[in-house]
Amino acid sequence: MRPPYLLLDIDGVLIPFPDADGSTPATHNRHDVVPTGRSADNPVTVWLDAAHGPLLMDVIRSGLVTPVWCTSWRQDAATLIGPLLGLPPLPYVHLPRPQIATSHPDGYLWKRDHVNTWLGDADVVWIDDDFTALDHEWAHMRDARGEATLLIQPDPYVGLRAEHLAEVRAWTERRAGAPAAVSGIRAE
Fold first, then answer.
1. Which of 89, 9, 62 shows the shortest CA–CA distance to 171?
2. Tens of pLDDT along 136-173?
3. Tens digits of per-residue pLDDT, 64-95?
């Protein structure tokens, strides 16, 4: 059985949105990056939690998932964001640059149609902050067809938490028939 994909968003997941007063979680450090198409004198400021790298690497090293970026950062996820977290280069889902004024033009996450095509019948754990009820219905329909699907939706003002990755680990271990982990430590 091939491991499920772990689709990982960045904005609202690894880079939390600022509060109304402009603050971000104290755990996150400021970095200026230059995405593809921008000049070096016009960087983008991002806030990242260095603890996310080891947490993600623990899940990746388990071999229970195949990690893939699923973000509007596209290849910049692997070249700019991943290295700041100590992650190896990961592939990414090639998403178009939508010409939309809202994240949900059809009532669901704009990425979903592209991800659905890309996934085919593969199992998936997808971490994104922007799912709607229609995305959760889509996940249930995939499950009903035997395409195991887990959606994890962090609070976009807090971002990814250790508990989210523990949920990924527990779900993938159950699926693989492995012993369950407790607090990130594998059961003997």
1. 62
2. 999 999 999 999 999 999 999 999 999 999 999 999 99
3. 999 999 998 999 999 999 999 999 999 999 98
Q: What are phi and psi of 171, to 5 degrees?
A: -65, -45
Burial of 97 (0-12, 13-18, 19+ CB in 10 A): exposed
CA atoms within 13 A on the CB side of 136: 7
Give the strand pairing for 5-8 and 124-127. Answer: parallel
60 exposed, middle or buried (CB, 10 Å; 0-12, 13-18, 19+)?
A: middle
Q: Which of 29, 2, 121, 44 is nearest to 84 (CA)?
A: 29
Token pair 């195991």: residue: 148
| pLDDT band, very low/low/confident/very high, at 105 (cuts 50, 70, 90) | low
**How much is the pTM?**
0.89
CA atoms within 13 A on the CB side of 141: 7
Instruction: Please list, in sequence order, all residues whose beta carbon lies within 8 angstroms of the beta carbon of residue 12, skipping any fewer than 6 positions away.
Output: 128, 129, 130, 154, 156, 159
